[in-house]
Amino acid sequence: MAGDTFGHTLQLTTFGESHGRALGAVLSGFPSGIAVDEYFIQGEMDRRSPGRDRFSTQRREPDRLQILSGVFEGVSTGTAIGMAIVNTDQRSRDYDEMKDVFRPSHADYAYWTRYGHVDHRGGGRSSGRETSMRVAGGAFAKLYLRQEGIQVHAGVRSIGTVTDGGAPFEPPFDNGIQAVDPAMVPLFEQEIDRARMEQDSVGGIIECQVTGVPCGLGEPVFDKLDAALAAAIMSIGACKGVEIGSGFEAASMRGSRYNDQMHIEAGRPVFESNRSGGIQGGISNGQPIVLRAAFKPTPSIGLEQHTVTRTMEDRTIRIGGRHDPCIVPRAVVVVEAMTALVIADSLLRARAYGI
Amino acid sequence: MAGDTFGHTLQLTTFGESHGRALGAVLSGFPSGIAVDEYFIQGEMDRRSPGRDRFSTQRREPDRLQILSGVFEGVSTGTAIGMAIVNTDQRSRDYDEMKDVFRPSHADYAYWTRYGHVDHRGGGRSSGRETSMRVAGGAFAKLYLRQEGIQVHAGVRSIGTVTDGGAPFEPPFDNGIQAVDPAMVPLFEQEIDRARMEQDSVGGIIECQVTGVPCGLGEPVFDKLDAALAAAIMSIGACKGVEIGSGFEAASMRGSRYNDQMHIEAGRPVFESNRSGGIQGGISNGQPIVLRAAFKPTPSIGLEQHTVTRTMEDRTIRIGGRHDPCIVPRAVVVVEAMTALVIADSLLRARAYGI
Amino acid sequence: MAGDTFGHTLQLTTFGESHGRALGAVLSGFPSGIAVDEYFIQGEMDRRSPGRDRFSTQRREPDRLQILSGVFEGVSTGTAIGMAIVNTDQRSRDYDEMKDVFRPSHADYAYWTRYGHVDHRGGGRSSGRETSMRVAGGAFAKLYLRQEGIQVHAGVRSIGTVTDGGAPFEPPFDNGIQAVDPAMVPLFEQEIDRARMEQDSVGGIIECQVTGVPCGLGEPVFDKLDAALAAAIMSIGACKGVEIGSGFEAASMRGSRYNDQMHIEAGRPVFESNRSGGIQGGISNGQPIVLRAAFKPTPSIGLEQHTVTRTMEDRTIRIGGRHDPCIVPRAVVVVEAMTALVIADSLLRARAYGI
Amino acid sequence: MAGDTFGHTLQLTTFGESHGRALGAVLSGFPSGIAVDEYFIQGEMDRRSPGRDRFSTQRREPDRLQILSGVFEGVSTGTAIGMAIVNTDQRSRDYDEMKDVFRPSHADYAYWTRYGHVDHRGGGRSSGRETSMRVAGGAFAKLYLRQEGIQVHAGVRSIGTVTDGGAPFEPPFDNGIQAVDPAMVPLFEQEIDRARMEQDSVGGIIECQVTGVPCGLGEPVFDKLDAALAAAIMSIGACKGVEIGSGFEAASMRGSRYNDQMHIEAGRPVFESNRSGGIQGGISNGQPIVLRAAFKPTPSIGLEQHTVTRTMEDRTIRIGGRHDPCIVPRAVVVVEAMTALVIADSLLRARAYGI
Known about the structure:
4 copies of one chain form a homotetramer. Chain A is of the alpha+beta class. Chain A has one domain: 4-Layer Sandwich (Chorismate synthase, AroC fold). The first copy, chain A, has helices spanning 38-48, 93-96, 108-115, 131-147, 185-197, 225-234, 255-258, 328-352; strands spanning 5-6, 11-15, 22-28, 66-67, 71-72, 75-76, 81-86, 151-159, 162-163, 204-211, 239-244, 262-265, 268-271, 279-280, 283-284, 289-295, 305-308, 314-317. Chain A is globular, with a radius of gyration of 21 Å.
């Protein structure tokens, strides 16, 4: 009810602030008997960590995941999986000067009205560092999905005003910035560089596709598969938009162009297009699931901004230091993780009804 | 767990198929002591009903809502509110010819893989008629929100390829098609007329705004207010995209342009813009909440389409008869209803923690 | 969250007051393809109805269940099952004299503090009539369980101070009062008769057993199968105690006597006793599930009692008329229904994890 | 859904096995601004630890609780509270000889059928050590309740066949064994001593009372306050029965004796008895809440028992070593913790509706 738990049959509960003692999670409902590849899981953690590309913040955040329960002799036991990363650097000195100031378009003001305080040490619970536990949970979900023949991949479609031309989606995207189209990498880098040099920031768009999804996942009415995905993705800090299949473009299409027609090939139904993004009536139809998410620019910028203090005084602020001018490349694995958690949850949930 | 219930503290559970005996709902957690204006509620039902504008289907669907419990002498008792509409016309004759055919981009195929059957009588549980109970629940939510000084309004921003020029959002939009910009009404009508004449269909975009929302609604991490809204809106049948505030446009903006700066006026903080759409860090900040939803074109069209049968044979299909070429105007009240349910639920939920 | 919904994977949501227009329910998550025997379901409704034995109230309450959705051509569709009974007699005249008085050990006073009002018409939502929808939901659960080879039966073990001698549990108990031991029927009747003649009331104890339960149902830690059963049974109006297996007697037993030892017969493990009542560590072990529930005496009695009014004045009250001196025989089917709902829910829930 | 989370508005999620790396919990929905007295919390942990009385196991289990998040400068922040205890002794050597044997009336066999394996290292997730995190969560709940003027206390009413004579309930019970009646301490000790000398074990009964509870807590129908308490208490490992107020005794009482009559004193309603145990119609009525729980004897005994192995062979077993002949005194704080969690959850939940 307080929003720290995600999912129904596979449930991830997280805790932890950016500068507290530790961040951690409990993954409940993970099936027993799944081989737990800790090397893969740590690899996912590393994909989110800063310092992987030359654009991300230079803070040392070694997100070394410890698995504390639920895994015995390399295999999941079916009981709750506890995990944590210890914060080695709990210094919050860098933030002390901003202690009384609401940073523009951060969560500071809203949290202050909600809780009567703000943990000024780097955003506390609203920090992007919270997503580390989503990635940990998502890594477990991927291990389960792989065994079921399901793959989840995401990549960057645009950075700032630079958008790719609709290149085919052929993962993995091992090109530093995780661009869907490797040819876009230098252009995306240039866009980020320019923003940084101007002490500004940029956002971008990530696309995620899931292949191997069986028909029949998702619940009708309120828990449609696309509704679950929309909530999952929109719950990632900086996300401001989600679309499925043709998405917003669908609004301007004629039915005759939008509809996914079918015919028979080798005795089986074949869709002639996938504008529905793999979901019809809220239920998966066996086609790849396709979604896109819009991320706003990083709110921390060096340019001067107007803001106010807790004591209701005007102030100007320049947020200096070691902030990413663009968090989009680091968000790719987070989008994958949330998508994987939804698909794994939906699969287990559908199993209850014999799917 | 099977997706027929929506919300946490205020919960709407619905049942009913388009051609069954009745559709109904249980609204649980509605506060006691609220005056229940049945005339207003029925008015909301009527806004969704077809035949209000000249574009919608001509079927007679008198959605006469009966309130069966939870209201005593015109006031809510605090216990479960039961409600239902009886289906006066349960004929399914019109659908018999399509009994064995999966209608393209309808839920037919996905449902068939899920449940081992399709209720061919007009879509069954996946029919748009399911939304009538969302509107009934949303009408109650609005009654509660009004008492708290909160208003929810939606209007049409685009139909097919015709988009308004960003007219100011000044509800109510009593112009038949519920366009935000009344000057767009003839152009929107033309777009729909053209689609109908060509036996085709069109989609569109609806914008919804909520005013009077207190600060502090929404839960951090997974149940952010924008995540809850995204799930709510995306769970409406034909919706394929949701965005908050600047939405997808935010992805191409610089932080310096996107960030909502603040200053003090009359001792209180004032935002200089609302690109966040009233939500920061997943929590309301007191500004109007702004969201937009993309609706795909109606899947039922008269043009010939390829499809397959349950016995895995190719077939062509023309879906004739009394179908809307555009459901967007009728979806306006559904968007409002789902938004109102989320805001009312979030408000009650926050009250638990003293907001 | 407001307590009108029961279950996780199979969910029953109910509405309705004793003297409102209708009582109803939504059963969500019921599997598709189950034959729905409406004659059996109505038979269950009738088992709860008064007037079946000569002790129950003589009010005419024809609980004729209407199934409104989710069943098509006699088979469940997998979507929400809506159902309702219409209240033919909504007269509340009989209750008007008690309008301002809190009836002792009824819910009146507690509800008044909670909701700021009391629906004086026979208890409103707290009336025993609320259990009719539990029976309807339980009847569906039984249909599903039967198909899985699981049987749920309950019977009366004691009425007032009269207790059976531990007769073997051999259902069905078609002896009017539904006594486990048919030899006890006249003694139980005598106990009830004596209470009625003295304008008083009595309670009793019901035992429920479930056979054919597979191993592995129930979730560890908080949602143990016995915890779910305890909540289900204790949520029935007049229930004040629940025990599993040896129950309270276990507290005075030595481990050497209590423990259920095992040995091998025909290659399979056989338990030498069932003091655990079929549940160990919160998970079913394949033995019959055994529970007992204590019901308090009916609070409505003709003898004079002290009470107070809403305006905080002393008053004496005699509750006359057509009240059962003992509701225990009518509660038998309610205990079965709640047990069946828990077992069906647990079974579907376990299926998600491959049980 | 997998049962690792407890509560609705205040939610406790736990993880950890008896011999894993750590046990931990996330407490979500704990209000902000509550002073967190870590000394009190550790004191509660110590009450559960063995070695406090001379009867409990002599293993060293220093349950040193670490608070990892959600508390800043000694005050709760309103966000998720993470906590953990590290297992200093992960030796499982002592259990290796029982690796393939199902210990009678332990969870071993049921878990094996559920998960396809048993963590033989002391019971794994089904170990009594799991309750340490309930105590940690309950300690936080008590801190919140105290601020609201609510006190939760439990004490021992019986051990084995030795029962107190209904002494008045006047906490605290600082007498080693936590007996309600201090005069019973030597008799209770004698009962436990005798069981140990005979290599056997005993159970007992714990009573819990809550004072200062406001009227109006609990939800009608399925989430009655007594139903929530029953589930909470029955979910504690060895509990086999729960009763509220007069409990099972109510079944044999006449209505005229059972009913809690009322009169006015100093303008306010006063109950003349509390046979309802503070709950009527599932909702608190302002009187002390009273419940009793039956605990079975410890299943681990030194006497020889029949059992079977995983390979379906007969075996006899003597469970030697450092096991408690009676866990009832250590369970007292667990009963308090679960009760406190339910009351705190119900209070926050009711606040949503303005109670």
